Amino acid sequence: MTIMKNGDDIMLLEKLRETVWKCNLELPKNGLVKMTSGNVSGRDPETGLVVIKPSGYSYEQMKPEDMVVVDLNCQVVEGHLTPSVDTDTHLCVYRQRPDVFGIAHTHSPYASSFAALGKPIPSCLTASAMIGGEIPVGGYVPIGGEAIGAEIVRKIGQSLAIVMQNHGVFTIGKSPQQATKMAVEVEEIAMITHLAMLRGTPIWLTSDQIAETFNMYRDQYGQK
Ligand SMILES: [Zn+2]
Fold first, then answer.
1. How many domains does the chain have?
2. Which of 11, 148, 164, 209 could bond to 89 as cystine, CB 3.0-4.6 Å?
3. What is the reported pTM?
């Protein structure tokens, strides 16, 4: 569906398209994806529609108008390209988590190495507190359907990120920007944790230390 006005095409959710497009570009810029893998989506709080990256489409040639608008039942509402193969996963999370307005997915290597082991990413860095401490792991689920979304919702708890066994990373947030930032943070944390584990046994944070750092990020971090 394209809304026509005065003979000109008016795109739905122009601002959210632009935001989701920019967030998608952050994935290759931060070394989280190769070629066409990975995706970011965002949900519009007013209409409930979701904007997501097109499937198998190169980041270099992607424009805001190439983003696909879908409803929560995976029907394309507007877009000239096929949505990401992970769309069902994103929509399943949005349907069950009304607090989530942005989702990012990558196969970023350090975090995905924990996924390959079926292990959570333990917390030995204060930065992990902004994600919620230890990053949980979800069980193996074949890709391309709703089952991944259901497993994410089952296992992610209060965390903003999860590694899915044998697959990769999903992050959530109150906006596409927050989900994208978490995807960058997860990879950074996974890399440092991996390096620390090569050099010895890291000093793991206690739940009290994670909680006090979480409160600091919530109350004091950033510009007011
Ligand atoms: Zn994937």
1. 1
2. 148
3. 0.94
